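Hi V.,

You were right to ask for the full record rather than a summary. Here it is.
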Amino acid sequence: MACRTANDRGFTLIEIISVLVLLGILAAVVVSKNIDTGADALGEMEGIRGHLRYAQMKAMNSNTTWGILLAGNTYTLQQNGAASATPFPGEDTSTHAMPTGSTASATVNPITFDQWGSPGAATITVTVTAGTASQAFTVSQITGFIP
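Predicted structure:
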């Protein structure tokens, strides 16, 4: 059995394992910060769906057409084809600005509802993109069902 002397150099197994564990933790943190999970797109999609349901409810409770006009990273509540003076629920204005890098588009724009809550004879697909992630949903023709 050899004795350690002051001239012996090197790392112990415990030191090597400690460094590897720390590098693993740092790598996990860096990777998790750079992964796009699609949560932003999902959140914005849910917001648009809620606001479309609000416009549909307003149309069914009045004798006017209500809807939403999508324009890049904003969308506006409309009444009879013009920007509404009524703000979105829980907001100060009738225009909602999405975060930078987020956009929304639809196969029919603006999306409008009549007094029966119908968007018309076309099924409308709404796509929300945030970063590299996209989420989509449809508004059913005639019935206006928004899943």
